[in-house]
């Protein structure tokens, strides 16, 4: 059944790494408990990929140290490699080969004999809905299929720790949901997953703990709930039936909530911040109260949604600057690593 | 969950619904197989090189069309002027142009490695718990097949044009064998540059800068005795000169012990020096 691992999967202290002038990691500390999804959340260029590459033994840190299941990533790299696998941000399978060939190749490299490698490849392709595509070159796959074969390759030898570097970036919503389901299944099995993402909702849905990374440092760490409550606010988005009523709606909302209200470019749209420090009520209660006031004032609301704080808002709250991407991290890294 | 397998009649996007039961089955860990031996890992990587040839056969253009052009071009360009007629020249020239073509093809090892790294697939290879040089050794072993193919193509063209090796089949095989051993060793120069340089283009650029003088400033095209002294000094030290002399001797049915020794010595030096540098870079990235 499940292979449970307890304790810490990753312990990192003060990891640093520079590429020329660019300081990709400026002293990262991480404590990742085993058996769950841990999210590294941050904008492009925050250092997430570099951190993953150091922890997966692909890159040596300039300073600091990191252990994966107690093994040092530099001194005992081979012991680490025996327990992890990586699905990188870019295809980590051979695009010229077919899906089946890729999996057989990796099975052989992991020590399976040819018939066993073939059998394993077939099982994985079936479970990942790729049987039909098994004989096609990976470069002819859709984005979602490519991700799936990539993850299938990573669990060939069911690792204790799986690195997923931005697994859903660039995927359509359905493919994203598929990847989420797969991640949940992998974790339910007992594998620890370190997931990097730019999307708060993704980290929120999958991760049991999140570290927010910015400029090569962890600037906040905790459960998704802790992080969101530290930010404290969300937004209510409203669309009115009658644009004429918008000034009235603005006045009502401001009076009811005591918060700033923003008029959108769309003449019927209006946005209000809720759940901030100024109120004892949580965001949903405030939103309900606002809706009540609007209906009492005879204002017809066609569409209503309560949004979580966006990554931008989390960043604004944590750093006083929005989540602007630093220069493309991977490019710097590739150049500097040569 | 409706189904755990994809259903599609044609190539339309398949609707895949991940099934936690199906995934749980494939996740159930069997006993981990033992780590493959260095030889087995290297052979698996060379299998990958063969699969790439199968899927992208255009890459064989370099090892077929290019050598044919080289033989035809130089035989008829220089033959009359240098040896009275192309046929006599070919008798002298064929082993040399075979060496030149194959040694030039070795640079694609570096280009291929650079492309692989750019695409990210080496990230996965480098996180596997296998013998570290296996990925590179396997790649070069795959390339050796291309070298053999190029040599055979050139030999065939030569035979058609009138090349008659006095060493017979054994001599020819010995000559090709020497060439392949040297090319395997020399490929490690390019794996190093493939790892150090930033782009495919710069790997090509550096390769050309090294290969042109190395192959032309040798005894491939003419006898070095008419060259100025300083150039003779370079030509006589050039590993390509030693290789060409020993391949020529083998194909002519004689043997040139000193050239052969030098060829082997250079091969060992290339593997030891550039193999080590390559692995150092490969591990340090």
TrEMBL record, chain A:
Subcellular location field: Cell membrane
Main location (coarse class): membrane
Record membrane topology: Peripheral membrane protein
Phosphoprotein in keyword set: no
Keywords: Antibiotic resistance, ATP-binding, Cell membrane, Membrane, Nucleotide-binding, Translocase, Transport
Any GO molecular function: ATP binding
Residue ranges of domain ABC transporter in the record: 10-240
Gene Ontology CC annotations of this record: plasma membrane
Swiss-Prot/TrEMBL GO biological process terms: daunorubicin transport; doxorubicin transport; response to antibiotic
Signal peptide: none
Family: Belongs to the ABC transporter superfamily. Drug exporter-1 (DrugE1) (TC 3.A.1.105) family.
Protein's recorded name: Daunorubicin/doxorubicin resistance ABC transporter ATP-binding protein DrrA
Species of provenance: Micromonospora craterilacus
UniProtKB/TrEMBL annotation, chain B:
Topological category with respect to the lipid bilayer: Multi-pass membrane protein
GO molecular function: ABC-type transporter activity
Pfam families: ABC2_membrane
Entry annotated with the keyword Protein biosynthesis: no
Main location per the UniProt record: membrane
Top-level taxon of origin: Bacteria
Stated name of the protein: Transport permease protein
Source species: Micromonospora craterilacus
Origin organism lineage: Bacteria, Bacillati, Actinomycetota, Actinomycetes, Micromonosporales
């Amino acid at each position: 059944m499940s292979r449970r691992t307890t304790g810490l999967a990753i312990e990192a202290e003060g990891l640093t790494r520079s590429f020329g002038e660019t300081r990709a990691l400026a002293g990262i500390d991480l404590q990742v408990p085993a058996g769950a999804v841990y999210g590294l959340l941050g904008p492009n260029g925050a250092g997430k990929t570099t951190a993953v590459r150091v922890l997966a033994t692909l890159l040596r840190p300039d300073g600091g140290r990191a252990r994966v299941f107690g093994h040092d990533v530099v001194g005992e790299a081979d012991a680490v490699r025996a327990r992890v696998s990586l699905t990188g941000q870019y295809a980590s399978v051979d695009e010229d080969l077919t899906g089946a060939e890729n999996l057989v190749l990796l099975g052989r490299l992991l020590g399976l004999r040819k018939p066993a490698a073939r059998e394993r490849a077939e099982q994985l392709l079936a479970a990942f809905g790729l049987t039909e595509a098994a004989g096609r070159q990976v470069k002819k796959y859709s984005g979602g299929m490519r991700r799936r074969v990539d993850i299938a390759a990573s669990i060939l030898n069911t690792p204790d720790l799986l690195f997923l570097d931005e697994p859903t970036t660039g995927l359509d919503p359905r493919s994203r949901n598929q990847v989420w389901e797969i991640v949940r299944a992998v974790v339910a099995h007992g594998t620890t997953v370190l997931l990097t993402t730019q999307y708060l909702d993704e980290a929120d849905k999958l991760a049991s703990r999140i570290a927010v990374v910015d400029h090569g440092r962890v600037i906040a760490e905790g459960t998704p709930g802790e992080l969101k409550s530290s930010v404290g606010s969300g937004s209510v988005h409203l669309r009115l039936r009658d644009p004429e009523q918008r000034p009235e709606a603005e006045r009502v909302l401001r009076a009811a909530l005591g918060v700033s209200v923003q008029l959108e470019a769309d003449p019927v749209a209006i946005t209000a911040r809720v759940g901030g420090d100024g109120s004892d009520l949580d965001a949903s209660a405030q939103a309900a109260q606002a809706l009540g006031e609007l209906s009492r004032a005879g204002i017809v609301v066609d569409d209503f949604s309560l949004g979580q704080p966006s990554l931008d808002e989390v960043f604004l709250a944590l750093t006083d600057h929005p989540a602007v991407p630093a220069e493309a991290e991977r490019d710097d890294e590739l150049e500097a690593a040569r | 969950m409706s189904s755990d397998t994809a259903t599609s009649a044609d190539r339309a996007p398949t609707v895949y619904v991940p099934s936690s039961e199906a995934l749980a089955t494939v996740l159930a860990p069997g006993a981990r197989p033992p780590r493959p031996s260095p030889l087995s890992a290297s052979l698996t990587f060379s299998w990958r090189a063969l699969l790439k040839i199968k899927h992208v056969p255009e890459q064989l253009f370099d090892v077929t069309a290019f050598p044919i052009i080289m033989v035809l071009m130089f035989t008829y360009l220089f033959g009359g002027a240098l040896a009275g007629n192309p046929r006599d020249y070919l008798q002298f020239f064929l082993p040399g142009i075979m060496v030149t073509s194959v040694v030039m093809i070795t640079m694609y090892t570096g280009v291929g490695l650079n492309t692989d790294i750019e695409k990210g697939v080496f990230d996965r290879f480098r996180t596997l718990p296998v013998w570290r040089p296996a990925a590179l050794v396997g790649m070069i072993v795959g390339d050796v097949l291309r070298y053999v193919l190029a040599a055979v193509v050139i030999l065939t063209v030569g035979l058609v044009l009138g090349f008659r090796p006095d060493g017979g089949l054994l001599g020819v095989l010995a000559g090709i064998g020497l060439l392949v051993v040297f090319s395997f060793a020399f490929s490690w120069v390019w794996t190093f540059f493939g790892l150090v340089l930033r782009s495919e283009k710069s790997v090509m650029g550096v390769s050309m800068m090294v290969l042109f003088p190395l192959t032309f400033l040798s005894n491939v095209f003419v006898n070095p005795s008419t060259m100025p002294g300083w150039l003779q000094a370079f030509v006589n030290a050039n590993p390509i000169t030693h290789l060409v002399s020993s391949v020529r001797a083998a194909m002519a049915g004689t043997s040139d012990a000193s050239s052969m020794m030098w060829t082997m010595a250079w091969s060992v030096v290339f593997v030891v020096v550039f193999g080590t540098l390559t692995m150092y870079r490969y591990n340090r990235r």
